[in-house]
Design brief:
Blueprint lengths: L1 E6 L5 E7 L4 E4 L2 H10 L4 E4 L2 H10 L4 H4 L3 E4 H8 L22 H21 L2 H11 L3 H13 L3
Helix pairs in contact: 4-5
Length: 157
């Protein structure tokens, strides 16, 4: 499940985008988001900078009970690790321009989904020894634990 939030100055979730494999939702209603999450049960909650930003707000919201047993996967540190030739690691928000400068959490969740699968593909191209080293060194680190758990579950390290 891919998630992105927009949080107001008052530290409340104002807008949320969630994408599953087949469906997605863009809403300002935590009740609608809760219904969507209940319908599309997932082991992994994936977001860009989710561990150092979104997770705090999600766990302080009414969505908390639905997320307690979930594994969080953060594409920001994974992007820094696997695409280190890039100098810029924010999501490429090509939908924004000078007339439309607002963030769209659903579009960002979908961009995160693409980045996640790009990262998996990139990791798979690394030599086996390098994959083993990265896995061994980072599998317990909070910022990478979710990625390696998800990767290990669906493929071989």
């Amino acid at each position: 499940m891919f998630i992105d939030l927009e949080v107001g100055y008052d530290k409340k979730i104002r807008d949320i985008g969630i994408a599953s494999d087949q469906e997605h939702i863009h809403t300002s209603s935590l009740k609608e988001a809760s219904t969507f999450l209940e319908k599309h049960s997932a082991t992994y909650i994936i977001g860009h900078n989710i561990i150092n930003f979104d997770k705090e707000f999600l766990l302080q919201s009414s969505l908390n009970s639905l997320l307690q047993d979930k594994i969080f996967v953060d594409t920001l540190p994974v992007s820094l690790l696997l695409f280190n030739e890039k100098t810029f690691h924010s999501l490429p928000k090509n939908y924004k321009d000078e007339d439309n400068f607002l963030n769209d959490p659903l579009k960002d969740a979908l961009l995160c989904k693409k980045l996640f699968f790009d990262a998996v593909a990139k990791f798979q191209t690394l030599p086996q020894l390098q994959r083993n080293i990265l896995y061994t060194l980072l599998k317990e680190h909070e910022l990478f634990r979710g990625f390696f758990s998800c990767y290990q579950r669906y493929s071989r390290v």
